[in-house]
Amino acid sequence: MSDAASGLEPRIGAEVERVRDEVVSVRRDLHRHPELSHEERRTADLAASRCDAAGFDVRTGLGGTGVVADLDGSGEGPTLMIRADMDALPVQERDDGRAVRSEVDGVMHACGHDGHVAMALGAGAVLTALRDRWSGRLRLCFQPAEERAEGAVPMIDAGAAEGVDRVLGIHLWTPLQAGHVAVTPGVLFGSADSFTITVRGRGGHGGMPHSAIDPVVAAAQVILALQTIVSRETSPFSPAVVTLGKVSGGSAFNVIADSVLIEGTVRALEQSERERLLTRVGEVARDVARAERAEAVFERGSGCPPVVSDAAVARTVHAAAAATVGDDRVHTASPITVGDDVACFLERAPGCYFLVGAGHPERGPVAPHHSADFDIDEASLPVGVETLVRASLALLG
Predict the structure, then answer these.
(1) What local confidence, expressed as pLDDT, does residue 96 receive?
(2) Distance between CA atoms of 397 and 378, rounded to whole angstroms?
(3) Domain count, the chain
(4) Are residues 30 and 73 in the same domain?
């Protein structure tokens, strides 16, 4: 190890320790004040004000509530983006006596985005203190509306990705125990697309169905038929999901409705499968509804491609994680069919999206993401900060 490298090591540890309590405090503050997609004004203000105070050049209002903050290092070099998502979910947090709970009725950080913002700010603070040890430009990107896959593209359209050479993204992950990190070259998360199907019939009297065209019956047939796209048309070696999350229609028990609305999502690990699945959802819905004398109108909603990490950047992040937690605690995660529109940034510049273990099995069963019982082990936060810092220093040179 060179004298320069050996001199840097104690500084990294000391700076991460210096910001530890502040990172936890920010996470708890954001957890108490969650904001839904496209409503992240308080969160954005917090991120922007802290970056401004640290000397970053801050731009706000990108793609809605998005924030970008730039800081130049000690010389010319590449631009590295650290991206963090800000939005919460429409979930009522369980009142189980935990010390930190949402104070907003019906809204909760049930996926760890509060921690993502806190870790990005913490990494920014450490890298500011180590500014003499890197060159180029650090860009912190605080993105809205990840849960709806509607935040990344508007930010990119507003210039958030201009000039970016590398991208780092981070996700707290409770299926992985705190103190562990997962880094996966290639595909980590699948695509994520929403869609609606409007099944239109002809309303009428519930006691005289022969004089109407019942969209409820047609919708039921459509729902069942859509399940065969995965079970009978998709290879068992190609993970894919078609989920119908909401069905609504009708006004009274004795009235045949005019229409039924079905809302769902499609997930796939390959772009070609993504497009095939979406096409088949529309075709199956249309043809099955027609057999019931009804009409089905398919509309594709917001979405994003699979999350794919660059192999070279992933190797850098793996080394950073190993220096943080030890090589035996760095894992390769199997791809899964959740989604994240960080994928849109990774399409525009090579990067790595990695998982920081946040589970706490010693407290009992670990609740899944997006559940009312979700919680993180806050010991994960400094792990995320240090891994981001080490990877950033390697990428910025």
Answers:
(1) 85
(2) 30
(3) 2
(4) yes
Q: Which residues are catalytic?
A: 87, 146
317 with 361, same domain: the answer is: yes
Q: Are residues 72 and 207 in the same domain?
A: no
CB environment 146-184: b (16+ within 10 A), e (fewer): bbbbbbbbbbbebebbeebbbbbbbbbbbebbbbbbbbb
* Mean pLDDT of each 10-residue bin along the chain, 397 residues long: 66 97 98 98 98 98 98 96 98 91 98 98 98 97 96 97 98 97 97 97 97 98 98 94 97 97 97 97 98 98 96 98 98 95 98 97 90 96 98 95
pLDDT, residue 5, reads 57
Cβ neighbours of residue 61 closer than 8 Å, sequence gap 6 or more: none
Q: Which residue has the tokens 């509804």?
A: 289
Last residue of a domain, one of 304, 335, 365: 304
- Residue 101 sits in a domain whose CATH number is 3.40.630.10
pTM of the model: 0.92
**Are residue 8 and residue 100 in the same domain, yes or no?**
yes
What is the rounded distance in angstroms from the CA atom of residue 362 to the CA atom of residue 367? 13
Same structural domain, 184 and 196: no
The pLDDT value given to residue 363: 84
Pairing of strands 330-331, 66-72: unpaired
Three-state SS at 49:
helix
Distance CA 363, CA 369 (A): 16
